[in-house]
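Z., the sequence and structure:
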Amino acid sequence: MNDIVVSVPPAASFLSVGLPLKISFTRDQQKVMYGSTLLGWKDHAWLVCEWPIQLGHDQQIAGGTPCTVSYLHDGKLVGYRSEIRDLISAPVPLLFVSYPKSVEEMHLRKHLRVSANEPTLLMRVAHENPSGSALRTSDYFGGLLKDLSESGCSVLLVRTPAWLRAGTIIHMEFELPGLGHITNLTGIIKNADARDGGDIVGIEFQFNQLEYIEYRGWGGSVRQAIEQCVRQRYPGDDLLIAG
């Protein structure tokens, strides 16, 4: 990522109706984050957005409560410090927050990357098996998923098999907590670095519609499930400088 850039509104493409937002604040001594949608604003006064469904319409938040507002736009994470101005429950649940005095922008990777800690099974694809029969025990290898993005992941291996090198095609199996269990996801080994007491292997996903996910009350493709997982885990407001 590049350095944080601070700008004073209005900035180009600063706001747009329908923009998905993340609103974060401290509640009951815990940091909480909720998704919302921008509905409108008054320059240099306030922003109005949907009241987060997760909170329920019977919840009250005191005016003046500090919060942060963040969103993704054109490959950048944009955010600013604010405070909750007011909320109304009727006729439509709405939340009002203060208009920013300055915003912070951070350029992101092509795809967001989040940390992970899930057991992972790597399997050598059948066409690389010289016997032409079922996979041998040596063609299976366990690791630990360390990070995840929409396009790939990193896996920690305590011991790397001789056949696993850059360019090797594998199948992967791992859990997306709360979403489902992924099997038969094709990946290509891109690189390997020795650290953390083992080898960190970089893998690029190859979605070919043969991958499968056993859902946990969630619908969609494997690609969509991974995208959903990354969005849920990404701490968008962390770009904001403490102080």
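Residues 222-233 form the longest helix (12 residues). The first strand starts at residue 5 and ends at 7.

Let me know what you think.
H.
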